Amino acid sequence: MKTINQPNKGDYSDFFSTYLNLVAGENFEVLILDQIKLIHELFLSKDRKWAETAYDEGKWTPKEVLGHIIDTERIMTFRALCFARGEQSELPGFDQDPYVFNAKFGSVSLVDLLEDFKVQRMAMLSMLKTLPEDSLDTMGKASGNPITPRALFWIIPGHFMHHFTILQTNY
Prior knowledge:
With about 170 residues, the chain is mainly α.
């Protein structure tokens, strides 16, 4: 698998800098695969009650956090595909809270959520193998902001690290 270089400033809005800073200097493919192991190890080291208990009122449960990560990765991957293929239309934003609420992740087995995460990651890596290198820098617009497929792909592991750290420290 070819690894992809990190995006340049200007390839994304400042909002995503927090996520991208969490994965600066990493190898993309190694990072993506290591994160599959990290999330499995974390969830499997805890009891079932942990995965289904929010750390505070109004916060998501760990299973809901994992579901949110999966949904976000699907959306970011879809956006990357659209822009890599030359989509000129602006893609809409999404409100994460209704996605989590309507998904009812609490009723999905942890085994199924963990497998879904792994399959999503593997599908993304498979898709990346087929994308021409120059397509990764095609500028698109999502949520009112310019962004490239390269940036979208790198936001994925950064977003994961953001939530993984919260799972480790707050739950």
